[in-house]
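[Discussion] Sanity-checking designs against the backbone

I'm trying to build intuition for which residues belong where. Below is a structure token string of 354 positions. I'd appreciate it if someone posts a full sequence so I can compare it with mine line by line.
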């Protein structure tokens, strides 16, 4: 009987078991350590990228807020003193106008001052405090009042006005101020001016008065009407706000509007025309006298914007130049900041002088 031969490629089972003994404990621990090391590196990288992206987002928001706040002020300052067709001269009264008054006589006197400001008051002065509570203003920041007529389409008829809204009817030589709609059946019309044909009523424009200021918060706490420590979810965010004269319930009223959050400080320097030719004086001044306000022809704006959220591990040790008002800081907190500055011409008054 022939012998059975075993192929050379076949090995006994005991031999295969000896070659497939698996990993030793030391090898397993080394593999786990390498894996953990790689995972830690990937985690750190993702964390760093996330933090960098968060800081980039904060900076982008701050830049956008600063530029937008400056643009809002620039637009209103450039339109200040626009009074429709009126091209005559106006004489300022012997006292600063009351920005909170909605009486038509007060509005008529105030038109002589397209701009009016308050230089870094520690508390809101009277009579401005009648419509701007002290708790809604950051002490040491400037307040600006602008006056003009709406630049859109004029009203062709007084009867089409909004109840309680103040309107100004103008011709090149005269103006009439009243509260729409007008006339009523029992009262003769306030708006008696006519165009060159001596028949067609002169157009009317809505009177626009805005008061810009820095508020300690953006959104009030529930049930509150002023800024408190509970505003903005317990972390008040300084905000550029505006009080705007409008109509409510059929009567003139001021409405407060948050404009840009993260604006912490506003300082204004005024260029006063000293030679009567529409050229601002140099240097700019921070607090014009009563006689200077009709001659303000330019403003230098300094806005300090800060991030809405703190940056972990950061301490603000910088100082920030705010024009003639000097520097502010360091704040020694975790918020990053930047100053936005620029000069704006008051186009309508300066153009008339040119």
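Best answer:
Here's mine. Compare freely.
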């Amino acid at each position: 009987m022939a012998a059975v031969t075993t192929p050379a490629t076949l090995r006994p089972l005991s031999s295969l078991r000896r070659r497939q003994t698996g990993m030793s404990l030391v090898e397993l621990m080394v593999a786990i350590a390498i894996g953990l090391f790689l995972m830690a590196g990937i985690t750190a990288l993702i964390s760093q990228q996330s933090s960098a992206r968060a800081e980039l987002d904060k900076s982008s928001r701050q830049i956008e807020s600063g530029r937008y706040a400056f643009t809002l002020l620039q637009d209103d300052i450039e339109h200040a003193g626009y009074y429709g067709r009126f091209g005559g001269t106006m004489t300022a009264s012997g006292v600063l106008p009351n920005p909170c008054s909605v009486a038509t006589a007060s509005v008529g006197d105030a038109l002589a001052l397209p701009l009016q400001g308050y230089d870094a008051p520690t508390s809101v002065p009277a009579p401005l405090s009648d419509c701007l509570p002290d708790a809604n203003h950051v002490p040491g920041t400037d307040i600006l009042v602008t006056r003009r007529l709406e630049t859109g389409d004029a009203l062709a008829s007084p009867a089409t006005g909004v109840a309680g809204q103040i309107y100004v009817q103008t011709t090149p030589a005269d103006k009439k101020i009243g509260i729409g709609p007008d006339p009523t059946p029992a009262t003769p019309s306030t708006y008696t001016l006519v165009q060159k044909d001596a028949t067609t009523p002169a157009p009317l424009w809505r009177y626009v008065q805005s008061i810009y200021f820095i508020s300690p918060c953006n959104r009030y706490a529930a049930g509150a009407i002023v800024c408190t420590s509970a505003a903005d979810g317990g972390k008040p965010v300084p905000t550029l706000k505006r009080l705007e004269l409008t109509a409510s319930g059929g009567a003139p009223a001021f409405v407060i509007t948050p404009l840009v959050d993260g604006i912490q400080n506003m300082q204004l320097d005024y260029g006063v025309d000293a030679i009567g030719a529409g050229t601002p004086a140099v240097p700019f001044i921070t607090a014009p006298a009563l006689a200077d306000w009709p001659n303000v022809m330019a403003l230098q704006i300094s806005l300090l914007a800060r991030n809405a959220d703190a940056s972990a591990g950061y301490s603000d040790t910088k100082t920030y130049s705010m024009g003639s008002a000097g520097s502010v800081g360091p704040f020694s907190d975790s918020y990053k900041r930047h100053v936005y500055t620029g000069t704006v011409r008051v186009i309508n008054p300066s153009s008339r002088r040119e």
